[in-house]
Amino acid sequence: MTNTSVKCVEEIAQSALTTSPIHAMRVLSVERAGDQLVISGRVDTFYHKQLAQELVRSVAEGVRVVNSINVD
């Protein structure tokens, strides 16, 4: 996958999080790191951490997703 494609997927993934009906996911961020996407931020539950990962994964076909979200 090209860097341009990853950048586009990064924007789509960030948009998916910021428009989520789950408020905790709206404050997370997605950044490109080489040919992968890294999700970061803080949530209150492991459930929200997993939901965020699966949401990003659903829009990031073919791009490796790294979940660096911290759970408080």
List keywords for this structure.
single chain; 72 residues; alpha+beta; Histidine-containing Protein, Chain: A; 3 strands; globular
Tell me what the structure shows.
The protein is α+β, with helices and mostly antiparallel strands. It has one domain: Histidine-containing Protein, Chain: A, CATH 3.30.1340.30. The protein is 47% helix and 29% strand. The protein is built from three helices and three strands; from the N terminus they run H-H-E-E-H-E. It has helices at residues 3-18, 23-26, 46-59, and strands at 29-33, 36-43, 64-71. The protein has a three-stranded mixed β-sheet with strand order 1-2-3. Helix 1 packs across helix 3. The radius of gyration is 11 Å and the shape is globular. The model has no long low-confidence stretch (mean pLDDT 92).
Total strands? 3
| Average pLDDT taken over every residue | 92
Lateral arrangement of strands in the main beta sheet: 1-2-3
Helix count equals: 3
Under CATH at level 1, the class stands as Alpha Beta
Could you say how many structural domains there are in total?
1
- Low-pLDDT stretches are none
What is the element string, with H for helices and E for strands? HHEEHE
Calculate Rg over CA atoms: 11 Å
Distance between the termini: 34 Å
What is the fold-level CATH name, i.e. the topology? Histidine-containing Protein, Chain: A
Largest sheet: 3 strands, mixed
SS strand fraction: 25-35%
Structural class by sheet pairing and helices: alpha+beta
- Outline: globular
Helix content: 40-55%
CATH architecture label name: 2-Layer Sandwich
